[in-house]
Specification:
With 211 residues, the chain is α+β, with helices and mostly antiparallel strands. The chain contains 6 helices and 8 strands, in the order ααααβββαβαββββ.
């Protein structure tokens, strides 16, 4: 008992040191848990991607044209026609299962939106969000599901309505509801038809639109 009393008095005399030690241990445990969670998350995505592309290949077309040459090409009236022909070739070629448009495309919204914290680009007074334009096979190839609402339908890809169907990542659920209309800085109006499940291959901050 005498030893316990001395130990207790020693603990009281060193409250600050022990409190700091407690905080350090707690922070280390939280950090360790976060790292483990990230590793497991990445591993899960990798396994899902490997199962999806098994026996297939993913190709990325990257334009290495310098800006001056790019501007010169875009001023040519035939450029948009040739670009459309390229996408039509990929769309109808049986060797391709699915394709997306420019992966670096963004939807720019007003900076004062409540979800500005999950934006991936900033160009005051606007914030940029990843906008992935897909074809009608993309959802099936990557096995994407909705936790709310529904995926795109074939009619969505052939429609000519005033709004563009839009799927939002899981992280957007606190900020938007089904059937909300989002208008970007260019005046395009998007109709929210669903939210991707949290475990979807594409991260929660993605916005997916038809192409």
């Amino acid at each position: 008992m005498e030893q316990l009393r001395y130990a207790w008095e020693d603990i009281k005399d060193q409250k600050i040191r022990n409190f700091v030690l407690f905080i350090q241990i707690t922070a280390a445990l939280v950090l360790f848990s976060f790292i483990v969670s990230v590793v497991l998350h990445v591993s899960s995505y990798r396994e899902k991607l490997n199962s999806i592309i098994e026996g297939q290949e993913i190709y990325l077309i990257r334009d290495m044209t310098d800006q001056s040459r790019f501007d010169q090409i875009m001023t040519n009236p035939d450029s948009s026609t040739k670009l459309r022909e390229l996408y039509q070739f990929m769309k109808h070629n049986p060797s391709f299962n699915t394709y997306t448009a420019d992966a670096q495309h963004f939807m720019w919204l007003a900076e004062n939106n409540s979800h500005s914290s999950i934006a991936v680009r900033s160009n005051p007074p606007h914030k940029g969000y990843n906008l992935l334009k897909i074809d009608d096979k993309f959802m099936d190839v990557y096995e994407l599901q909705c936790v709310e609402g529904s995926p795109f339908t074939k009619e969505d890809f052939s429609g000519t309505g005033e709004t563009i169907p839009l799927l939002l990542g899981y992280d957007f659920r606190p900020f938007y509801q089904l059937n909300d209309i989002i208008t970007d800085t260019r005046g395009f109006r998007y109709h929210v038809i669903g939210f991707l499940e949290q475990s979807a291959y594409f991260m929660g901050k993605e916005i997916i639109s038809i192409f």
